[in-house]
Design a protein that fits this description.
The protein is mainly beta and 233 residues long. It has helices spanning 15-24, 67-75, 130-142; strands at 10-12, 31-33, 36-42, 48-58, 62-64, 81-84, 88-92, 98-102, 125-128, 147-153, 156-162, 172-178, 182-188, 199-204, 208-213, 218-223, 229-230.
């Protein structure tokens, strides 16, 4: 499906955007769409923020309480069109099927801050390939490891699937870059809700990491766990 808006209040949605929204529903079951082409979500715990630059231009602000349900309704249609009203969106297709889906009260949804996240300049950057990411997450699942650690020893950067609370736990790692820094950035695997792809990764001493798809369209900011450290701190 490609975007073919016919007025300021109608649009269709691309397959890519549908996939991103499916991913965002794992971060927060609710979402507030803002007028424009920037779609953002934040976890209720405010430790994961996602931001996507979509093909579509959303014509107005509205909230959806159950995003998975909303996407399920969309899946009932063959190349659906969306017509936005004050209180609901009408969904229809060429087969004459239609639905009215009502918006939620925005006060019921955790909304990302208006101001975007800006990380300070940092030398801790590397590219995390799509196959490497997939392999690490598979290893964490196979060995029941709850964390991924991005670790620098002053020479190389490794991403390690492990359990920092168990010194005898199995590990699985990849070397992904070079660094002169010593640090360990610890993330719960359950918080790495990344859609499949290759990412430009930035590690900040603010205990926050930025994962941006290499095409620049999608970015996640994910908070580190308390056991993370930089330069021994």
């Amino acid at each position: 499906m490609t975007m073919t808006p016919t007025s300021t209040k109608t649009l269709t949605i691309s397959d890519e955007t549908y996939q991103i929204l499916t991913n965002f529903s794992t971060i927060n079951s609710s979402i507030v769409f803002k007028k424009g082409n920037l779609i953002r979500t934040i976890a209720n715990a405010e430790n994961i923020l996602g931001e996507y630059v979509s093909e579509e231009y959303i014509p107005q602000d509205f909230a959806i309480y159950d995003l998975s349900e909303f996407l399920g309704v969309i899946s009932l249609f063959n190349e659906p069109d969306f017509d936005f009203d004050t209180y609901y969106v009408s969904i229809s297709d060429d087969n004459k099927a239609s639905s009215q889906y009502f918006y939620a009260d925005k006060s019921m949804v955790t909304v990302p801050p208006d101001k975007g996240v800006e990380l300070p300049d940092t030398p801790i950057k590397f590219v995390l390939g799509d196959k490497v990411l997939k392999h690490l997450l598979q290893a964490a699942s196979v060995m029941s490891l709850p964390e991924l650690c991005i670790q620098g020893d002053g020479d190389v950067i490794k991403v390690i699937a492990n359990n920092t609370k168990n010194t005898t736990a199995h590990q699985f790692s990849y070397e992904v870059g070079k660094t002169s820094e010593q640090f360990k950035a610890v993330f719960k695997v359950e918080n790495l809700k990344l859609i499949a792809g290759a990412y430009d990764v930035t590690i900040s001493t603010q205990r926050l990491a930025q994962f941006t798809l290499t095409d620049g369209s999608l970015t996640y900011w994910i908070a580190m766990e308390g056991s993370s450290f930089f330069g021994g701190q």
